[in-house]
Amino acid sequence: MVSLHGHITAGCHWLPKKDGGRLLVSTWLVASLVFMTCYSGILTAMLTLPRVNIPIDSLSDLVAQSRLPWRIEAGSMMFHYFQEAKEGVRKAVFDGKSGTFKDCWAARKNIATGKFAAICDRTTMKKAMSWDFRRNDDGGGETESEVGK
Known about the structure:
Number of strands: 3
GO molecular function: ligand-gated monoatomic ion channel activity
Strand order of the largest sheet: 2-1-3
Keywords: Membrane, Transmembrane, Transmembrane helix
Protein name: Ionotropic glutamate receptor C-terminal domain-containing protein
Number of domains: 2
Shape: rod-shaped
CATH architecture of the largest domain: 3-Layer(aba) Sandwich
InterPro entries: Iontro_rcpt_C (IPR001320)
Family: Belongs to the glutamate-gated ion channel (TC 1.A.10.1) family.
């Protein structure tokens, strides 16, 4: 800031002669510095995050692998969708399942610990992932209100 103050008051050939112009230039310099610092910090954070390897990206990938068993929510629309399939990946998903589970929310702990993969609707899985991230952020404990949700 001392350097900025010195440039503003002492002047040089590229600074405006009037105080209003100098104020505008100094504001622009400070704003540029702030934006540059924020951008470089965000860029550094994005580049230093570890890459997450997602081995299963589709139903075809799920059926092709044998390391992780998968289950379908019993009585759900997904269960009936795969059950009625006559051929293809949908039939392979239903035939290769390792069982069913009551509901996606109740199975969230088993899914999060990797006991099995679950085929659930998107909304429930987003809620379960939110629960898992929130639980892991505060030390792994869950409160009574989280269990009752």
